[in-house]
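Title: Comparing notes on inverse folding

I've been comparing how different people in this forum approach sequence design from structure. To keep things fair, I'm posting one structure and asking everyone to reply with a full sequence. Here's the target:
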């Protein structure tokens, strides 16, 4: 993972705003892996995630002047990529799927305090990737990308109640999958 200081990042962003191809390449190199991982969480297919990542950078470079320089750049960047992933899901009608899918960690801990020590993050990420599309999308947006439930409802054109229901179902499904594998 490439890290850059704030001043260097500002210079890279300025270069991108001036359509400097070296600056664009540098920004791509810094964030490509992280944005691919973000896209993968939504589409659950590596090649589709790479396509989304490339499309996302095209969108970033064509709209980078919209980034005002205030606020966290990576947060702005993630929002662009999440929106790209959601647009893809909308185009494929994947968000219309019903998912029969409490806070995962609290629930697991309440049931078996030692359970959470038996699994690691890769086990959880694998279980998340097995969720139905709608449940996975809501779970990722809320638990991993930090979107408030109200914003998720707006982005997915759902009621807040439906989003909360999908989120609860996602956690229940994750609990079931993880319990089956590790208990």
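Reply #1:
Here's my take.
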């Amino acid at each position: 993972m490439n890290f850059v200081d704030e001043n260097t990042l500002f210079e890279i962003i300025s270069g991108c705003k001036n359509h400097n191809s070296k600056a664009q390449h540098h920004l791509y190199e810094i964030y490509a892996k992280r944005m691919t991982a973000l896209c993968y969480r939504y589409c659950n297919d590596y090649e589709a995630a790479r396509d989304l990542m490339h499309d996302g950078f095209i969108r970033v470079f064509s709209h980078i002047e919209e980034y005002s320089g205030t606020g966290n750049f990576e947060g702005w960047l993630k929002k662009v990529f999440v929106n790209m992933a959601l647009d893809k899901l909308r185009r494929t009608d994947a968000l219309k799927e019903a998912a029969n899918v409490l806070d995962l960690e609290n629930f697991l801990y309440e049931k078996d305090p030692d359970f959470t020590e038996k699994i690691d993050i890769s086990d959880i990420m694998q279980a998340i990737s097995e969720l139905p599309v709608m449940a996975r999308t809501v779970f990722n947006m809320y638990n991993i990308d930090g979107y408030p439930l109200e914003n998720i409802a707006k982005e997915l054109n759902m009621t807040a109640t439906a989003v909360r229901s999908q989120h609860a179902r996602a956690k229940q499904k994750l609990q079931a999958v993880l319990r089956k594998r590790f208990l």
